Amino acid sequence: MMTMVVAVLVVLMLATALLVLVTPNMIAAVAASSAVSLVVSVLFVMLRAPDVAMTEAAVGAGLSAMVLALGLRRLGLWKLDNREKDDA
Amino acid sequence: MRNLISLLFVGGLVFLLLVLTLQAPFAEGPMLVGKGILQQGTEETGTANLVTSVVLGYRGYDTLGELSILFTAALALGVVLGRRRPEAPRDLEAGLVLRASSDLLFPLLLVVGLYIILHGHLTPGGGFQGGVILAAAFFLPVLARPSQRISHAGLMALEALAGAAFIIIGLLAMRHGGQFLQPLLDKGQLGSLLSGGTLPLLYIAVGVKVGAELAGLLVRLGDAEADS
Fold first, then answer.
1. Could you tell me if residue B140 is inside a domain?
2. Is the dihedral of CA B83, B88, B91, B92 positive or negative?
3. Which residue from A minimizes the CA distance to B224?
4. Would the CB atoms of A75 and B227 count as touching at under 8 Å?
5. Transmembrane stretches, by residue range (chain A) (predicted)?
6. pTM of the model as a whole
7. How far apart, in whole angstroms, are the C-alpha atoms of residue B105 and residue B111?
8. B218 to A54: CB separation less than 8 angstroms, yes or no
9. B28 part of a folded domain
């Protein structure tokens, strides 16, 4: 049972990590990268490391996504698609 | 010239790393530190959460290093982002969803963050985690209403005060004849809020410092003029 749940979580994590690479929308990529951190934090809870899970959820899923999104805004890539940028 | 300097820098870094790794005794003999801490950590420090007794008690010096790393990162970001021109346009007020949810979430985040900091020695979590949540709590209203300002000077003063408190508690331990950052005060009853000696105080200092620092960092990033 436990192994099944972990397997599902790992597949979910890899899928979201892949999404970060392939999605053309940058904000969507940031959101996906924070979803990766969320899944990792669930994995940490299952590995009985709640302290690390909390840090991962707060920093990985929350703070780093915010910093990345604000960085995109600073660079003016807020609403741009990757595709548009390549054409320009 | 520039390449030469870069090469020198990289060479120096490699040399330092090599010296460190060649001298470090890797995998020599059984590692007994972990076992020892697991056996007597709770008794020695009086914290129900063993992770806290390691982070602040046995490895308090490392935590000080972590705090200074964070401080350096925030400082570098402030230098890179620079000052905002006074005539730069501000963002418009956010939509209803963000404004309403920021009003709703602010008190909740505040309570959760403070709870995690204050109970760091009893339950999972502590100063770093709670500090990040506090920073998010104070950044959310700014995100919703960009015209609303948080005082940078106030945040910096709070951060400096908390950082100084951490070091002063460490120095007080030396004054009482112990090592730097050695836990002081009565250990109290295991599992009660007032237990663990000075470790909860240290975690409060860490929480306030991390919270003020990251809130300042986020506000600064959000304040930066957007290229558009």
1. yes
2. positive
3. A74
4. yes
5. 57-75
6. 0.81
7. 10
8. no
9. no
